[in-house]
């Protein structure tokens, strides 16, 4: 058993070693790596131009992104880095086509070519010194930059950097491709000079742009100021409208406050005036009652007595006239009878005439007595009527005196308030009479700097002159009475009470 295990263990160990050897010699390339496997013999190649034989590079196997088994002791593996390299390029003092010295800075992206031929070329030159790829690329690009700058003007370099960079890339492409390198991109970062040419080159455009900017700024500032002025005008108009509205509201409020403040005194004055009016009505009714009493008790009985006397006098006069007429008729009849008897004699005519004269004398006496009686009756009636009228007038005067006493008693109770009430009642009548001539005018033309506003002042002046003439002629100072009454009313308003009436 032991003898059997030893060969089996040795075989297993051999297999393990074989697996480890195969595993260690199998290589897999990364995405940015290229394996170059050497160890095979290249083929002989005849150059048709020279007729010489040379060995090609087919013996160098290139592996990209795959795996390969490297035979120990026979083949050798080398790794080439395919990563891109960022290379900065700077040149100083490069002379342009105008003789201006420029400083140019650029950046290039370079990598090893992606096919087997380019990888073999790069491996032959940079495999053992891959860090030299950057210095080599910088030298190639710097030379291309200087050669391109020398054939261009400063304006072309500044204004069309993309074309400038493309020309540099085209110029250096052959040199880099021959080394197995590829220029992915090249960009110009900055172009400067040691003098002021570039600064002066941009001054006209900068001045134009600055001028345009200043003009635009001035226009914008002008537009902003105009807009601000317009906004301020709108604000001022709104403030004026608000002030007018506030003034209108304040005027209405003040008017309402003044009306409310005057409501109490006006109401008191109205009550006082109503009391006085009621008292005056009572006095008028009392006077009317007294007059009706006089009419019933004095005037009508006097009229009846006068009518009775007149009727009696008229009846007496009529009776006396009738008696005189009868006597006259009898006397005439007697005289005619006597005259008839004495017609033949001359004494008959004489007797008739004497009788007629006597009858006329008697009639005249009777008529005189009747006229005297009539006149006496009329005198008695007139005296009775006068006595009745005197009694009626006395009664009316007594009633009016009593009414005036009642009113004076009421005025004494009201004191200055009654006087003020009388003045309040009289003053509108005075003003009405003063303004009556103006009110009768149909059409009026006012020539005055004050316009129609002078008319109220003229009416007021007329009232003042009327009060002044009243004071001069009668000694009654209405203005002083008004002021005194108003002052007392303002200082200590008196309570108003109605006077008792009978």
From TrEMBL:
Pfam families in UniProt? Band_7, Flot
Which InterPro entries would you find in this protein's record?
Band_7 (IPR001107), Band_7/SPFH_dom_sf (IPR036013), Flotillin_C (IPR031905), Flotillin_fam (IPR027705)
What molecular function does GO assign, one term? protease binding
- Report the GO terms under cellular component: plasma membrane
Q: What is its main location?
A: membrane
Q: Where in the cell is it found?
A: Membrane
| Residue ranges constituting the Band domain according to the UniProt record | 29-220
One of the GO BP terms on file: protein localization to plasma membrane
Q: What CDD domains does UniProt report for this protein, alphabetically?
A: SPFH_flotillin
Q: Coiled coil: which residue ranges?
A: 213-241, 334-387
**What positions does the domain Flotillin C-terminal occupy?**
377-494
Protein keywords: Coiled coil, Membrane
Family to which this protein belongs: Belongs to the band 7/mec-2 family. Flotillin subfamily.
This protein is called Flotillin
**What is the protein's species of origin?**
Nocardioides lianchengensis
């Amino acid at each position: 058993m032991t003898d059997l295990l030893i060969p089996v263990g040795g075989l297993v160990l051999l297999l393990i070693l074989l697996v480890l050897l195969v595993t260690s010699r199998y290589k897999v390339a990364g995405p940015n790596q290229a394996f170059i496997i050497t160890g095979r013999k290249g083929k002989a190649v005849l150059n048709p131009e020279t007729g010489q034989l040379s060995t090609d590079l087919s013996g160098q196997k290139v592996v990209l992104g795959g795996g390969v088994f490297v035979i120990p002791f026979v083949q050798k593996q080398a790794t080439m880095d395919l990563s891109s390299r960022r290379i900065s390029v700077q040149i100083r003092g490069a002379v342009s086509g105008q003789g201006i010295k420029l400083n140019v800075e650029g950046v290039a992206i370079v990598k090893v070519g992606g096919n087997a031929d380019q990888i073999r070329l790069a491996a032959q030159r940079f495999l053992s010194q891959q860090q030299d790829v950057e210095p080599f690329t910088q030298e190639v690009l710097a030379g291309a930059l200087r050669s391109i700058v020398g054939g261009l003007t400063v304006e072309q370099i500044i204004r069309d950097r993309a074309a400038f960079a493309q020309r540099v890339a085209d110029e250096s492409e052959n040199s880099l491709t021959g080394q197995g390198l590829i220029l992915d991109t090249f960009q110009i970062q900055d172009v400067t000079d040691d003098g002021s040419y570039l600064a002066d080159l941009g001054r006209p455009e900068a001045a134009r742009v600055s001028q345009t900017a200043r003009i635009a700024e001035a226009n914008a500032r002008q537009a902003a100021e105009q807009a601000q002025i317009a906004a301020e005008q709108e604000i001022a108009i709104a403030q004026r409208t608000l002030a007018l509205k506030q003034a209108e509201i304040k005027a209405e409020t003040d008017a309402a406050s003044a009306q409310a403040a005057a409501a109490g005194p006006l109401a008191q004055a109205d009550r006082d005036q109503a009391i006085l009016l009621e008292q005056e009505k009572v006095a008028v009714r009392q006077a009317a009652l007294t007059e009706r009493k006089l009419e019933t008790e004095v005037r009508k009985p006097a009229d009846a007595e006068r009518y009775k006397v007149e009727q009696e006098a008229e009846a007496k006069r009529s009776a006396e006239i009738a008696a005189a007429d009868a006597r006259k008729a009898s006397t005439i009849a007697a005289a005619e009878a006597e005259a008839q008897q004495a017609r033949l004699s001359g004494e008959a005519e004489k007797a008739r005439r004497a009788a007629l004269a006597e009858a006329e004398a008697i009639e005249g006496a009777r008529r005189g007595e009747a006229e005297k009686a009539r006149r006496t009756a009329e005198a008695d009636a007139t005296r009775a009527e006068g006595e009745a009228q005197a009694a009626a007038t006395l009664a009316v005067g007594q009633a009016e005196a009593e009414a005036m006493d009642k009113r004076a008693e009421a005025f004494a109770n009201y004191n200055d308030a009654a006087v003020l009430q009388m003045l309040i009642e009289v003053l509108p009548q005075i003003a009405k009479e003063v303004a009556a001539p103006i009110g009768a005018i149909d059409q009026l033309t006012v020539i005055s700097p004050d316009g129609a506003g002078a008319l109220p002042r003229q009416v007021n002046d007329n009232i003042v002159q009327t009060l002044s003439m009243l004071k001069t002629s009668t000694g009654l100072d209405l203005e002083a009475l008004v002021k005194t009454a108003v002052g007392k009313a303002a200082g200590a308003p008196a309570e108003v009470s109605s006077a008792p009436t009978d």
